[in-house]
């Protein structure tokens, strides 16, 4: 009996020495270089070469449950005279347990596929879809709190964040983002989301976000909006398919709009196996239609885009795409050729 | 010490509970903590393109009456910032017959614990193809975890293959 107890104690001590967690920091990042050629009708083309984004991730784990996470982003490689941006996109304390967690600091609301997960290898086009700019104001970040939980592939998150700036809302809500800079919290942005990832390769979800956004920091004069969206991504069996749809309704929009929204659809197929390439090689097609303000023909756009995207490894991506961008009221079609290189680690 | 014991005993209990779920209550298990065999360590790391985080692994020999019927392997891979603790069950030919994420410590990327995703490793062994995006489906937003767990399972097959061959000698 004594011998058994002795063995049990030794075994327990042996396991205790191997608690796998170790406090420490983590560094990561991502970035992307873009060549963009755009031409309106027969006008002269504009050609740019832009290191669009450079992001450094820094995190520290105090315990298994408590950690800090942050991301600093430099856009367009330089900041001067209103050009380029230096942003603290994330900086939060995180409590995480098996079933739920809590975040406080500079956080991202869960809205659309790309707002939280926007590393270049995760989306197929050189530039992020225009939907993810003018319908979902990606990257949308701000000061706030988040509570999340997951069970059996079902993930839920509730975010309370700084107000948007009502005076910036108009043809969409993008210019209403406070970006954590001296923001207000009179009404709070409320964002609730749910997604299901219980089937291999599939992610399907949706969210609703609302706020009475103060105009010029005045809580008695606000712009109200409600953003509802659904999203789906399937990436398995060599198939690549993405669909997002979103709609924003407004009250007291300074530009007079009562709604805006749209959708995009990406379809592709991994042909790397057919041509004997390592990694993934996906020819793809996108169709998108969105408006930035009611049925205003000046703000209604239709996009068709073809591309070829190659991931030699999952964290490095080379992209090429060609597309047309039609404004309903315009006579000319804009054509775009984009080439990009992206990475994350 | 008490807290550490509870945490780590929890990982062991979780793994053993999964072993009994898979094999039934009639089996008996023998738990071993062992150093990574030096004969296989660098070869496993090179082939799976992943270093071991620790110098030891955890192994369960699974017996039906007195006959060895399988092995269970527990190890860690590094996720974005924290270890992912995973277990792989093997038959006596070194083929994966089940796998589990025993503990995931990050707020994102936890989809690697999804049973449907882990089923892709069934039947895999040292010589199988483990290319993410080709033989193993990726998970959007969980790239680092997907790569880490895939390589970790691949790495484990070499250790198990070595131990089974040694057992037969």
Question: Which descriptors would you attach to this protein?
Answer:
heterodimer, A: about 350 residues, mainly beta, Porin, 2 helices, 16 strands, globular, B: about 170 residues, alpha+beta, five-stranded antiparallel β-sheet, 4 helices, about 25% strand, disordered N terminus
How are the secondary structure elements laid out?
The complex is a heterodimer of chains A (345) and B (169).
Chain A: H1 2-16, E1 24-40, E2 46-61, E3 66-80, E4 83-96, E5 100-107, H2 131-134, E6 142-151, E7 154-161, E8 189-196, E9 202-215, E10 218-236, E11 239-251, E12 259-269, E13 280-291, E14 300-313, E15 316-327, E16 334-344
Antiparallel strand pairs in A: 1-2, 1-16, 2-3, 3-4, 4-5, 5-6, 6-7, 7-8, 8-9, 9-10, 10-11, 11-12, 12-13, 13-14, 14-15, 15-16
Chain B: H1 2-23, E1 27-35, H2 38-48, E2 56-64, E3 67-78, E4 83-90, E5 96-103, H3 115-118, H4 143-168
Antiparallel strand pairs in B: 1-2, 2-3, 3-4, 4-5
Helix pairs in contact in B: 2-4
Structure, described:
- The complex is a heterodimer of chains A (345) and B (169).
- Chain A is mainly β.
- Chain A has one domain (27-344): Porin (Beta Barrel).
- Helices cover 6% and strands 59% of the residues of chain A.
- In chain A, a hairpin with a 2-residue loop joins strand 10 and strand 11.
- Chain A is globular, with a radius of gyration of 23 Å.
- With 169 residues, chain B is α+β, with helices and mostly antiparallel strands.
- Chain B has one domain (2-168).
- Chain B has four helices and five strands.
- In chain B, a hairpin with a 2-residue loop joins strand 2 and strand 3 (67-78).
- In chain B, helix 2 (38-48) packs antiparallel against helix 4 (143-168).
- The longest helix of chain B has 26 residues, at 143-168.
- The radius of gyration of chain B is 15 Å and the shape is globular.
- The model of chain B is unreliable at 1-7 (pLDDT under 50).
- The chains are: A mainly beta (345), B alpha+beta (169).
- At the A-B interface, helix 1 and strand 10 of A face helix 1 and helix 4 of B.
């Amino acid at each position: 009996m004594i011998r058994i107890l002795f063995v049990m104690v030794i075994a327990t001590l042996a396991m205790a020495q191997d608690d796998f967690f170790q406090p420490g920091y983590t560094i990561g990042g991502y970035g992307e270089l873009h060549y963009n050629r755009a031409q309106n009708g027969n006008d002269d083309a504009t050609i740019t070469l832009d290191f669009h984004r450079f992001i450094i991730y820094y995190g520290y784990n105090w315990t298994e449950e408590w950690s800090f996470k942050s991301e600093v982003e430099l856009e367009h490689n330089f900041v001067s005279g209103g050009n380029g941006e230096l942003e603290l996109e994330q900086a939060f304390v995180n409590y995480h347990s098996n079933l739920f967690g809590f975040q406080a600091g500079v956080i991202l609301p869960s809205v659309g596929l790309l707002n939280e997960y926007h590393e270049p290898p995760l989306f197929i086009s050189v530039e992020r879809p225009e939907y993810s700019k003018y319908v979902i104001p990606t990257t949308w970040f701000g000061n706030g709190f988040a509570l999340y939980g997951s069970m059996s592939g079902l993930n839920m998150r509730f975010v309370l964040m700084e107000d948007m700036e009502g005076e910036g809302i108009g043809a969409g809500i993008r210019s209403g983002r406070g970006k954590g800079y001296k923001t207000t919290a009179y009404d709070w942005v409320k964002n609730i989301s749910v997604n299901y990832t219980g089937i291999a390769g599939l992610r399907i979800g949706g969210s609703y976000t609302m706020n009475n956004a103060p105009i010029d920091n005045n809580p008695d004069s606000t712009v109200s909006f409600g953003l509802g969206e659904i999203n789906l991504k399937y990436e398995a069996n060599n198939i690549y398919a993405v669909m997002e749809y979103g709609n924003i309704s407004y009250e007291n929009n300074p530009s007079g709009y009562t709604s805006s929204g749209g959708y995009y659809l990406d379809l592709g197929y991994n042909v790397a196996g057919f041509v004997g390439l390592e990694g993934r090689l996906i020819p793809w097609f996108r169709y998108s239609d969105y408006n930035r303000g009611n049925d205003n023909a000046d703000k209604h756009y239709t996009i068709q885009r073809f591309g070829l995207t190659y991931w030699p490894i999952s964290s490095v991506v080379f992209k090429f795409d060609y597309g047309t961008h039609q404004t309903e009221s315009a006579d000319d079609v804009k054509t775009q050729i984009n080439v990009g290189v992206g990475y994350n680690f | 010490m008490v807290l550490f014991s509870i945490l780590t005993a929890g990982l062991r209990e979780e793994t053993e509970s999964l072993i009994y779920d898979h094999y039934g209550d009639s089996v008996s298990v023998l738990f071993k903590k062992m150093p990574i065999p030096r004969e296989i360590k660098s070869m496993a790391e090179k082939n799976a393109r992943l270093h071991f985080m620790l110098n030891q692994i955890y192994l369960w020999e699974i017996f039906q009456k007195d006959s060895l019927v399988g092995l269970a392997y527990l190890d860690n891979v590094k996720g974005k910032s924290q270890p992912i603790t995973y277990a792989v069950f093997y038959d006596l030919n070194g083929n994966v017959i089940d796998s589990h994420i025993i503990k995931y410590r990050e707020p994102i990327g936890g989809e690697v614990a999804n049973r449907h995703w882990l089923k892709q490793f069934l039947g895999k062994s040292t010589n199988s193809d483990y290319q993410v995006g080709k033989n193993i489906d990726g998970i959007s937003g969980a790239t680092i975890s997907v790569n880490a767990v895939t390589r970790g399972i691949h790495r484990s097959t070499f250790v198990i293959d070595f131990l089974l061959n040694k057992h037969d000698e």
